[in-house]
Amino acid sequence: MMAKHLVIGEISNGAFRNVSFEAVAAAKMMDESAEVVGVVLGESVASVAEEMVQHGADRVLTVESEKLKEYTPDGYSQVLMEIIEQEKPDAIVMGHTYIGRDIAPKIASKLGSGLVSDAVAIEGGSTFIRPIYSGKAFEKVAIEEGLQFVTIRPNNIPALEKDTGKSGNVEAFNVEVKDLQTIIKEVVRNTSTGVDLSEASIIVSGGRGLKSEENFKMLEDLADVLNGAVGASRGACDAEYCDYAMQIGQTGKVVTPDLYIAVGLSGAIQHVAGMSNSKIIVAINKDPEAEIFQIADYGIVGDLFDIVPKLTEEFKKVVV
Ligand code: FAD
């Protein structure tokens, strides 16, 4: 019998997070012949749901309710448990995001199922590779029987090319969302504009070397030219140069961009834990002995206040 893989899509500010499409690709990689069924929950999501089909899902189920406008563990688990019961999937795949990290273990444990979290690659369809010890090593994990839950790290498994010619196959799934135990009163978004840090393909990240909140603007200018996002070390956050939402590292966000530009940060082990798997790392630091140079692909030894504005000007000439 044909396997069935559910992919939980995530919407942010009215659009899919790219990791939703990467999860569709992962579900296909697990079994090329499986039926891939997208699931989208929210207040008004039906209009965008088709995009999951365009990225490779065979059909999409939508559940619309005012109670699902913001993520809550009880709202999502009620609905997802109902969908799992009716659809009887073999695997459930989603992004290793704040939502995925919260809901996947909750439901997997309710159902007594196996969970592979934070997968960065898939081998042979059923073996998942995930970083351990803060990215210093990788382990291979397989769930040998029963329903499999998998969360995938953003920016690691490429999404399938979008086929805008594909349409249809979006169905409303009827479920009554019972009263929630958690009521979200207000959501305060610190990073309402710009590129989402955890999914950015280019990150310009600053440390205590920036010396002030105003100087962080210099990083925004560089990130803007490159269509990237700005991140930070905890040193910079502790010094109040920027918001903790921007912190990268062991106790911050884990990122895997194509390009990570580390500016005026030393490369402490706790910072490196959140960015060492970036594809290309460029470090700018005035101290040639700074630890960040040990993991950098390209290093620039010098004063960031000279180098960053020059880089921004040069990139302006070549990036269109
Ligand atoms: P510093 O170490 O002070 O480095 C500043 C750098 O800027 C220096 O290398 C200096 O040479 C350079 N510099 C200064 N001026 C210039 C200039 N003009 N031009 C060029 N370079 C210049 N840290 C994180 O980042 N993320 C985490 O998630 C995290 N979690 C932690 C968890 C725990 C339990 C603990 C104990 C610590 C954690 N830390 C974390 C903190 C971490 O140990 C470091 O203290 C922190 O990363 C240092 O920040 P920094 O590199 O900005 O500052």
Automatic annotation (TrEMBL):
Belongs to the ETF alpha-subunit/FixB family. The keyword Aminoacyl-tRNA synthetase does not apply. The lineage of its organism: Bacteria, Bacillati, Bacillota, Bacilli, Bacillales. One of its GO terms (molecular function) is electron transfer activity. Binds 1 FAD per dimer. InterPro entries: DHS-like_NAD/FAD-binding_dom, ETF_a/b_N, ETF_a/FixB, ETF_alpha_N, ETF_asu_C, Rossmann-like_a/b/a_fold. Keywords: FAD, Flavoprotein. GO terms for biological process: fatty acid beta-oxidation using acyl-CoA dehydrogenase. Its cofactor is FAD. It comes from the Bacteria. Signal peptide: none annotated. This is Electron transfer flavoprotein subunit alpha/FixB family protein. FAD binds at residues 208, 233-234, 247-251, 264-271, 285. It comes from Alkalicoccus halolimnae. Residues 5-192 form the Electron transfer flavoprotein alpha/beta-subunit N-terminal domain. The keyword Ubl conjugation does not apply.
